[in-house]
Protein: Carboxylate/amino acid/amine transporter
Organism: Candidatus Accumulibacter cognatus
Amino acid sequence: MSAAATGSGTAVEDQQATRHSLWLGVLGVSIFAFSIPMTRLASGSDAVPQLHPLFVAFGRAALAGLLAIAWLVVVRARRPRGGEWAILLFTAAGVVVGWPVFLGLAVRHVEATHASVISGVLPLATAAIAAWVHRQRPARGFWIAAVTGTALVVAFALLRSLQSNGHLGIGWADGLLLLAVFLAAAGYVSGARLSSAMPPEHVISWVLVLSLPLTLPVAALTWPETPIRPAAWGGFLYVSLFSMWLGFFAWYRALAIGGTVRVSQVQLLQPFLSLLFCAPVLGERIDAITVGFSLAIIATVVWSRRQTVGAPRGR
């Protein structure tokens, strides 16, 4: 076979791998986009509460952790070694405890559309933490985009406060959402770091298994004592099986095949998908202000992704 034919075949294989990774990325992002409306569906509102937010947060991780045990046995995954345990614990603090707990508490008091807009800065938060952890030097434009995106989130929260309460102020639910975003971003960065040493699917599974001594008791203590709507249980099962576990399979595999820089652009779809899902799942109204702020925040993320990142600084 000629060199030209070999090169052509390699190019075709690369294109197929790229398309495959992008479709996997879209699948993963679509699964995650359902998380906010499904969490709201499971926990209910302040006026009509359903499952306790702590049960939703810890129960979903407990169920996913029990399934992860069986999966790790079937695939004969190796046990973590040495310092990997500490990284797994740190990752669990972000993606098992931080994001689910504070998101669940927040969506009891704000609509899922509101939470979707606030969480739109998650890619910026992840990139900023990654730059700090890896001692990289993003261009000035990146930090301008990060500050702009944060300012847009604050402005959106202030405007919603003015509309609902008649005065400017950041609600405590908005603070919980921002804390959830920060902790999730930290967990993503630490999990990605460990993914260079073991298959990414194993990382999230070991994170869930390691969390079981915490998640199982809390889930048992917060088990509902009153009747719960079937729809709320449906939301709980979704966030347990897909948001907490299987979604990471598609997402991490996409990053492994197509590369983080290229595939991560798909994440820009997530806020829009979350907003679209809020209408049919929860019946929430999507107004022009919500769409406008969501577009503006996404624009800052796109801008930040186009900025250069310098080499790591010397220690």
